[in-house]
Amino acid sequence: MEDWWIWSSGNLRTWKHECTLRPETTYMGAGFASCWATDAAERNGRYYWYLSEGSRRTGVVVSDTPTGPWRDPLGGPLLDEGLAPSGAYDPGVFVDADGAPYIVFGVWDYYLARLGEDMISLAGPPRKLTVLDPEGPYGAGKLDDKPYLHMRGGLYYLSWGCFYAISDKLHGPYECQGSIIREESVAEHLRYVGRPITFDRHGSFFEWRGQWCFACNDMSQTGDEHFRDTSICPIRYSSAGLIEPVLIR
């Protein structure tokens, strides 16, 4: 992508385009055309948007509103190449129950670093997160890119696409629970052609008006992994804290 867009909705069905952030607003500069995955957070009345510089690094921009205008406070990356033995991109932002902010990132292996109170610095070095018996869209033993963290009922959920793992400790270890999207739970016209239904989902979880939801990539209508829609599905948790399979109809 050549830029990043922000949309708003009052019902998760109809959406309004609010703003476009162009690379020339950041240290990446005009002409940059690898605007990859992002995440955002609000803290102390300000909004922080973390941006993947392709598969290389992660930058951050700041605004007083969720729709901008945005400014680049660092003039360079927050997560630089070589920070950890994994890609320093595809960030996920998580605020723990005690208010401490973290950023998780990486591909194949995931690393977690505590953010400074200013949200634009690191308060400590990244720590590798261990996932027991991992699996992903590429098979057993392999994770994916775009990690995400959320918490519910005292449990931490580390996810990658539609796969997830659980721990009762932020730094793990995490026990893999498999995918919440399964072939039999997806309508025929929404299945992928030539790819597993779990491929390239880039998922995240959020609670909205008392309902937990799962948002993810979907290329079932385009057939092109470089041109993806977004699907949002309500989810339910079992009494043991497991996420029940998602029905996509």
CATH topology of the domain at 4-129: Tachylectin-2, Chain A
Residue ranges: pLDDT <50 for 5 or more in a row? none
- The CATH superfamily name of the domain at 4-129 is Glycosyl hydrolase domain, family 43
Helix-residue proportion: under 10%
The best one-word shape is globular
- In CATH's first tier, which class of the domain at 4-129 applies? Mainly Beta
Read across the widest sheet, the strand sequence of neighbours is 10-16-15-14-13
Indicate the structural class: mainly beta
**Second CATH tier, the architecture of the domain at 4-129:** 5 Propeller
Number of DSSP-assigned strands: 19
**What is the average per-residue confidence, as pLDDT, rounded to a whole number?**
96
Q: Kindly, what is the distance between the CA atoms of the first and last residues, rounded to a whole number of angstroms?
A: 28 Å
Q: How many helical elements?
A: 0
Radius of gyration (CA) equals 17 Å
What is the chain-wise order of helices and strands?
EEEEEEEEEEEEEEEEEEE
Strand content bin: 35-45%
Biggest β-sheet, characterized? 5 strands, mixed
Account of the protein in words:
The mean pLDDT is 96. The protein has a domain at 4-129: Tachylectin-2, Chain A, CATH 2.115.10. The protein contains no helices and 19 strands. A 5-stranded mixed beta sheet has the order 10-16-15-14-13, with no helix packed on it. Strand 4 and strand 5 (57-63) form a beta hairpin. It has strands spanning 4-8, 16-21, 35-43, 46-53, 57-63, 92-95, 101-105, 110-114, 127-129, 131-132, 135-136, 139-140, 147-152, 155-160, 163-167, 174-179, 204-208, 211-218, 229-234. The protein has 249 residues and is an all-beta fold.
